[in-house]
């Protein structure tokens, strides 16, 4: 009997895929229907998943099994319920308190982490001596790296008008940014094609059984 | 007609000429370009790149019995790209006799991790050399919390059992008890948060796999500071890892299709440019 | 009170997190640890809120009979079905209100919630994102025109990277000298000029995040409070 349900599952997956792909021809009821089912199932999945995997182990379980050691968790529990009040327009102001806690915590942590990882360490990583690199190609590349990083940053510096020397450096920066965007496009195309490959491996392999 | 109007007119004319081809033809070519190589593979050779080799070397440098942390930070949308890399790395860890602690910063990562576990369950002894701790919300804050006290964030495994009952978790306190963390990441929270907190703040070596879309943005972290140690960026890199591990999988099978699809896109770019160039000359003459 | 207290909470939480980084000792480390564990719980409620809001929006569309309301009804029904299966029989190895629903699980091979996730949801999501493969090809054809120096550069780099990152690119240039081998050209572009551009973006964006974090902690940025 399980085999029947396995085959049915593959057919459901194949029909769902074809319904979504029907949009490539033109917008149609099959696509719209599949799209809304996707929205509904997705919302329920997140909802149920969060209850079982976040709220029960981190809050309810701890409160039920050992209340005396964990009574302080009543505070985030209460803040969580206040957060849910945002669903009712009359009481949505109650949600500002838990959001304040989340925003403050995230902002405090982000400030320190971004400063260290994305600013200080990235600047240190650019302080390289091309003369110490083993080969001419790497040395040339490292010069490009230093010039590109500095000129790119100058392009993002809007407190000074981009004219004269600053304008020239900023223009060089644009060239490096264009190279980055071109590379990003190449990689994006690669990623999207990979997703299509995954789908076709399912349709041609699991569904139609044409792949070895 | 003013000069500006003429140029606007000719630009829109060129645009119309370029868009003359019904885009559904392009869709059809892409569909065929990917399907045919999947059905009839050509078997192009796969070259291993330094970033993938770096990841392989990091896993290889761990000693048998070492504990590693794998974070499944993706969902079914990017499964075709990332799952093959995760599978290959788990196989590599099994071959090296490493202990795998699996977690997820994305809820659906847990189910995808389970799929791999079921495939490899013959070689994985739950609670001894593998454990699935499930999902935690909170992203960067959760990682920070793991660095202070790992068990506080994951008191129970994905099945709801106390993690202290398992051999693999018995003496785990914080990140010092892991050799490295590998994030299989397709967005936020994911690899960037692991670099920021586990890597730069707690000194745990960070590696992993990302979608090709985010690969260019992660390359600056592979530097002398060793913020990120190697990267499996996209399906091509996953195929390279499969080659290094010696077990060709879905990534390797998709490489010919990837090549042909890229060629088709490039051919269409060339056609688009030639059409634009010819129309530009035509419009100039007419103007 | 409705505005000042949230601002004060955000300020205290932010300052505490910063202090605990520079003074990783008690009481700061303990307080920030507590704050982090609270955060995880509140984040869970935030996810639940997001899904409830989405459901509310769909219900309102159906009741107001807005355009295409029938499709929104499909969203509500699929939410209800998935939700009921999850609540009644649980998911994966967690039990629901009626236990594990062994009879049903044995029949279909997994819990109904997991069955829908594996056989419907995963495929819908993967199919939705695979559409982008078709659209990116069409977009490349229409938009990638060498109109200026910058666009020519963008176009050439993306073509080189696309070819260099496939096996066919390597096969085509195997017999050429190493510096003309496409994967090597692509690797050089990615490791140096691309990294330079990306690094400028990372540092710029990092400074932006630091600025906006400070504005949030100090209460200069208040748009999250809504209203005024």
Using only C-alpha atoms, the radius of gyration of chain C works out to: 27 Å
Structural class of chain A: mainly alpha
Instruction: Tell me which oligomeric state these chains represent.
Output: heterotrimer
- Largest interface: which pair? A-C, 121 and 130 residues
pLDDT average of chain A, as an integer?
Answer: 93
**Average pLDDT, all residues of chain C:** 91
Please count the helical segments of chain A.
7
Shape of chain C: extended
Largest sheet entry of chain A: none
Q: Helix-strand pattern of chain A, N to C?
A: HHHHHHH
- Percent of residues in helices of chain C comes to over 70%
Order of helices and strands of chain C: HHHHHHHH
Percent of sequence in beta strands of chain C: under 5%
Helix coverage percent of residues of chain A? over 70%
Question: In angstroms, what separates the terminal alpha carbons of chain C?
Answer: 14 Å
**What is the strand content of chain A?**
under 5%
Overall morphology of chain A: extended
Number of beta strands of chain C: 0
Q: Separation of termini of chain A?
A: 26 Å
Q: Figure out the total of helices of chain C.
A: 8
Can you walk through the features of this model?
The complex is a heterotrimer of chains A (212), B (287) and C (228). Chain A has 7 helices and no strands. With 212 residues, chain A is an all-alpha fold. Chain A has a domain at 128-212. The longest helix of chain A is centred in the last third of the chain and has 44 residues, at 164-207. Chain A is extended and about 65 Å long. Chain B has 287 residues and is α/β, with parallel strands linked by helices. Chain B has 2 domains: 3-40 and 254-286, no CATH class; 50-248, 3-Layer(aba) Sandwich (Rossmann fold). Helix content of chain B is 52%, strand content 11%. Chain B has helices at residues 3-18, 23-39, 50-61, 79-95, 109-120, 140-148, 150-153, 191-199, 215-218, 234-245, 250-286; strands spanning 67-73, 99-104, 130-135, 181-185, 206-210, 232-233. Chain B has a 6-stranded parallel β-sheet with strand order 3-2-1-4-5-6. The longest helix of chain B has 37 residues, at 250-286. Chain B is elongated. The model of chain B has no long low-confidence stretch (mean pLDDT 90). Chain C is an all-alpha fold and 228 residues long. Chain C folds into 3 domains: 1-61, no CATH class; 67-137, no CATH class; 144-228, no CATH class. Chain C is extended. The mean pLDDT of chain C is 91. The chains are: A mainly alpha (212), B alpha/beta (287), C mainly alpha (228). Chains in contact: A-B, A-C, B-C. Chains A and B meet through α2, α5 and α7 of A and α2, α4, α6, α8 and α9 of B.
């Amino acid at each position: 009997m399980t085999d029947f349900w396995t085959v049915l599952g593959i057919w459901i997956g194949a029909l769902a895929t074809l319904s979504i792909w029907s949009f490539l021809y033109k917008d149609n009821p099959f696509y719209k229907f599949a799209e809304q089912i996707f929205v509904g199932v997705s919302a329920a999945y997140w909802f149920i998943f969060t209850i079982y995997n976040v709220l029960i182990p981190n809050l309810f379980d701890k409160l039920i099994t050992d209340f005396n050691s964990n009574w302080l968790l009543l505070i985030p529990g209460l803040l969580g319920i206040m957060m849910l009040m945002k669903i009712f327009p009359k009481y949505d102001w109650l949600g500002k308190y838990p959001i304040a806690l989340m925003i403050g915590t995230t902002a405090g942590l982000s400030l320190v982490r971004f400063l260290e990882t994305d600013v200080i360490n990235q600047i240190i990583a650019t302080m390289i001596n091309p003369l110490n690199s083993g080969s001419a190609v790497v040395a040339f590349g490292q010069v490009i790296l230093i010039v590109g990083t500095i000129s790119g940053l100058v392009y993002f510096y809007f407190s000074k008008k981009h004219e004269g020397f600053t304008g020239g450096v900023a223009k060089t920066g644009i060239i490096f940014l264009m190279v980055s965007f071109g590379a990003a496009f190449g990689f994006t195309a690669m990623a999207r094609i990979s997703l299509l490959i995954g789908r076709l491996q399912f349709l041609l392999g699991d569904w139609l059984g044409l792949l070895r | 007609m003013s000069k500006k109007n003429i140029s606007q007119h000719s630009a829109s004319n060129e645009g119309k000429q370029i868009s003359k081809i019904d885009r559904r033809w392009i869709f059809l070519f892409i569909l065929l370009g990917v399907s045919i190589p999947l059905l009839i593979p050509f078997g192009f050779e796969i070259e291993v790149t330094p970033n993938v080799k770096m990841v392989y070397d990091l896993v290889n440098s761990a000693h048998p019995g070492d504990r590693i942390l794998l974070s499944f930070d993706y969902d079914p949308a990017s499964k075709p790209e990332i799952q093959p890399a995760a599978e290959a790395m788990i196989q590599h860890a099994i071959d090296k006799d490493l202990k795998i602690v699996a977690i997820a910063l994305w809820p659906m990562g847990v189910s995808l991790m389970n799929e791999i576990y079921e495939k490899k369950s013959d070689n994985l002894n739950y609670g001894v050399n593998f454990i699935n701790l499930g999902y935690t919300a909170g992203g960067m804050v959760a990682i920070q919390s793991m660095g202070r006290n790992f068990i506080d964030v994951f008191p129970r495994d994905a099945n709801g059992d106390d993690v202290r009952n398992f051999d693999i978790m018995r003496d785990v306190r914080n990140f010092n008890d892991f050799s490295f963390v590998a994030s299989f990441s397709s967005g936020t929270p994911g690899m960037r948060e692991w670099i920021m907190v586990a890597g730069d703040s707690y000194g745990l070596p960070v590696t992993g796999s990302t979608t090709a879309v985010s690969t260019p943005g992660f390359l600056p972290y592979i530097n002398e500071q060793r913020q990120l140690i190697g990267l499996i960026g996209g399906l091509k890199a996953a195929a390279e890892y499969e080659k290094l591990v010696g077990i060709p999988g879905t990534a390797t099978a998709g490489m010919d299709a990837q090549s042909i699809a890229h060629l088709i896109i490039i051919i269409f770019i060339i056609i688009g440019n030639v059409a634009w160039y010819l129309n530009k000359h035509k419009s100039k003459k007419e103007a | 009170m409705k505005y000042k207290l949230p601002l004060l909470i955000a300020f205290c939480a932010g300052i505490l997190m910063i202090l605990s980084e520079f003074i990783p000792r008690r009481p700061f480390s303990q307080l920030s640890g507590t704050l982090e564990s609270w955060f995880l719980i509140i984040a869970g409620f935030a996810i639940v809120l997001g899904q409830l809001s989405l459901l509310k929006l769909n219900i309102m569309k159906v009741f107001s009979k807005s355009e295409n309301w029938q499709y929104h009804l499909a969203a509500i029904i699929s939410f209800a079905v998935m939700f009921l299966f999850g609540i009644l029989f649980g998911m994966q190895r967690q039990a629901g209100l009626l236990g594990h629903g062994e009879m049903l699980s044995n029949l279909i091979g997994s819990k109904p919630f997991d069955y829908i996730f594996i056989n419907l949801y995963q495929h819908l999501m993967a199919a939705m994102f695979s559409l982008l493969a078709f659209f990116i090809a069409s977009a490349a054809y229409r938009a990638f025109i060498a109109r200026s120096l910058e666009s020519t550069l963008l176009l050439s780099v993306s073509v080189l990277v696309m070819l260099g990152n496939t096996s066919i690119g390597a096969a085509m240039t195997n017999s050429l000298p190493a510096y003309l081998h496409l994967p090597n050209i692509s690797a050089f572009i990615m490791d140096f000029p691309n990294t330079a551009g990306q690094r400028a973006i990372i540092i710029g964006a990092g400074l932006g995040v630091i600025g906006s974090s400070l504005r949030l902690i100090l209460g200069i940025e208040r748009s999250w409070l809504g209203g005024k």
